[in-house]
Amino acid sequence: MQILIFEGIATSGKSTVIGNLEKALQPDKKVRVAYEDETHVPIMEARAELHLEFFKHLINKIVSEKADIAILDRLYMTQAYRAKSNLGPYKELEEYLGQHNARTIFLKVDEGGIAERIRKATLHRDPEWSEYVKTHGQEEQIASYYIEQQRGQLELLEQSKLPYKIFDTTLHDYDAVTKEILGLTKMPLKREAKCT
User: Deepest of 24, 40, 51, 62, by most Cβ within 10 A of its Cβ?
Assistant: First the structure.
């Protein structure tokens, strides 16, 4: 089994790349995708908690389904940032993930383009996103929050014991990103350098 954990701020392209990967991998591989409604939404309200048991249970469930490749739309890194934690408490979780050939894929957006992405997302994302933007301040304020979140998550990524790769999705070149990730699924795991 391989596990791909996608991290990155909202609007970074996680859903698009995950959808592309799922289509490209099937029907040759059994693919299990865990979207945010399974990985992130159930714990959103308890921002300050680490949710270690939640993540252990979720990963055990996914591993027990015996897919060839499991793709997770966010996992503990987002929560560690929200809880203002380092990755120390997640050490055991990372060790377990490492036994199942896990790697993190981080989708990074140039900070100067984040505000524009938020503006565009209000035009095509679900109504919940528009409501989120309306209730959380001006687009520039939300962009500032996501800039800080991306910086914080990149710092956490440096602490991770799992191999990872960073892809710059500023130019929305999701097909090229998908193709490179497909190549990674055929390679042995190692700690990987940033991809720009």
Answer: 62
Q: Where are the domains of the chain?
A: 2-184
> What's domain 2-184's superfamily in CATH?
P-loop containing nucleotide triphosphate hydrolases (3.40.50.300)
- pLDDT band, very low/low/confident/very high, at 191 (cuts 50, 70, 90): very low
Residues 30, 67 contacting (CB under 8 angstroms): yes
Dist. CA 120–CA 117, nearest whole Å: 5
157-170: buried (b, 16+ CB within 10 Å) or exposed (e) per residue?
beebebbbbbbbbb
Encoded amino acid at 30, one letter: K
Question: pLDDT by residue (tens digit) across 31-68?
Answer: 999 999 999 999 999 999 999 999 999 999 999 999 99
Q: Which of 91, 2, 6 has the alpha carbon at shortest distance from 52?
A: 91
Q: What is the pLDDT of residues 69-118, one digit of tens each?
A: 999 999 999 999 999 999 999 999 999 999 999 999 999 999 999 988 88
For residue 90, the 8-state DSSP code is G
Query: Is-contact 107 12, C-beta < 8 A?
Result: yes
